[in-house]
Specification:
The chain is α/β, with parallel strands linked by helices and about 280 residues long. The chain is built from ten helices and nine strands. It has two domains: about 60 residues; about 200 residues, Vaccinia Virus protein VP39 (Rossmann fold, 3-Layer(aba) Sandwich). Helix 2 packs across helix 4, helix 6 runs parallel beside helix 7 and helix 9 runs parallel beside helix 10. It is elongated, with a radius of gyration of 20 Å.
């Protein structure tokens, strides 16, 4: 079969088996099987695959049909224009989480930020993206998982920001050695009763998904800790799930009555990002 025929067949097979975005998934897996770029793939659509190439590709496709995320199959995921290593020890970065990076950069353009903390860093996508795009900032990145920190350190080396990103093992804000100007976090916010409906459950680490009964267990704890870990005039950026805005905003208003609070929607119109800023 040619590349064109293989892509067409794979799209059909994945779509019939309810794999979302089957055209993109097919392309990603075929590019990985052939070790070629997107440009190379589409510039030679009529090239015939060897028997070994076909075998390798359909083995990858079979793994995808079992529900294994393509990011784990290829070992990579793009986030904020950068390529990150991922494995089953870390959560796969989501496009909506790029809002955290965009907002943090916008805040840095409005005022001076010297220190930033990324809490629950996982593969390090947020922390490293901030370090790459905010060269004057020192970043702390914490995680409870040593396995995740290992992946994050490898990613950090790829982008030559290791001198400005410090990885710390521990729970939430506990490892921070000092108050910071900005805290960003994408903590687990999936409700317990909804875990079974998360497509990648069983592949991604439950530690990175399970937000407790109402999905806010870890977010609530972090908000209480933030009082001692934010500098005057500092900001807290929280990613939240569907239907969690009112509870989170109410909690923050109780804890920080003098602070300003802003909620941003993602591209799907879902309230996704809560930004709290303390008075200076």
């Amino acid at each position: 079969m040619t590349i064109r025929q293989t892509l067409s067949r794979a799209r059909q097979v994945l779509a019939v088996n309810n794999v979302d975005d089957s055209p993109l998934e097919s392309e990603v897996l075929l590019r990985h099987a052939l070790s070629i770029s997107r440009v190379e793939l589409y510039s030679d659509l009529d090239r015939r695959l060897t028997t070994e190439e076909e075998r390798k590709f359909w083995q990858l496709a079979e793994r995808r049909l079992t529900g294994e995320p393509s990011a784990y199959i290829t070992g990579h995921r793009e986030f904020y224009g950068l390529d990150f290593r991922v494995d089953p020890g870390v959560l796969i970065p989501r496009p909506e989480t790029e809002l955290l990076v965009e907002k943090a950069i916008a805040l840095a353009e409005e005022r001076t930020l010297a220190t930033v903390a990324d809490i629950g860093t996982g593969c390090g996508a947020i922390a490293i993206s901030l370090a790459v795009n905010m060269p004057e900032v020192r970043v702390y990145a914490t995680d409870l998982s040593e396995a995740a920190l290992g992946v994050a350190r490898l990613n950090c080396q790829e982008y030559a920001v290791a001198d400005r990103v410090r990885f710390l093992a521990g729970d939430l804000l506990d490892p921070l050695p000092e108050p910071v100007d900005l805290i960003v976090t994408n903590l687990p916010y999936v409700r317990e009763r909804e875990l079974s409906r998360v497509n990648t459950r069983g592949f991604e680490p439950s530690l990175a998904l399970d937000g407790g009964r109402d999905g806010l267990e870890k977010i609530r704890r972090l908000c209480h800790q933030a009082k001692a870990k934010l500098n005057p005039g500092g900001s807290l950026l929280l990613e939240i799930g569907i239907g969690q805005k009112e509870a989170v905003v109410s909690l923050l208003r109780t804890l920080f009555p003098q602070a300003s609070i802003e909620v941003t929607r993602d591209l799907s119109g879902i309230d996704r990002l809560v930004c709290l800023t303390l008075p200076g």
